[in-house]
Amino acid sequence: MSFPKPFYRWRPHPWHGLAPGRKPPVYLNAYIEITPFDTVKYELDKETGYLRVDRPQHTSSRPPTLYGLVPKTYCGSRVGALSGEGIKGDGDPLDICVISERSISHADIIMSTRVIGGLQMIDDGEADDKIIAVLENDTIWAGVEDLDSLPTIMVDRLIHYFNTYKLAPGEAAEDRIKRAYDRAHAEKIIQASMEDYEDTFGG
Question: Domains in the chain, start-ordered, CATH in brackets?
């Protein structure tokens, strides 16, 4: 009996060993690091590919959606240039927030998603964009093609989370999120991040 193709004898690295998606920049793979049920922030360990405990969430705020990264993307000079002159990328894979009708409580999973927009985030002077996508073939969100089709409160919750998720109680919030943008701009960010990845790590 032959192995299916492709076949991975060992687990591939979620960042470097998986494809960005079946048809980027619209249809993407998302590797999920955190769910809305997590009170601890997990983050991909770049060396091993396993999830590492980054820190407990300092406040009662939890991510409003599933949250993770897009494989084989990198926030480098091209992504930074789309955020403004003199802005550089944060040197991490591109972040993605995934909306799903059904509750998904497990991290360390791969999801097929469809991009609808994003958030421009500047953190410590670096571009740290958050792509917003829906679970592909989701029953409720299947008709959403662009960010303006989402209920405003869902975008507001994401903005609030990313403006406050690093706060310690009693600290004042910073406006890290500069704007929300549509699918067309999200596609430019994704394409730039894939090109930044090729420049940094090779094809």
Answer: 27-201 (3.90.80.10)
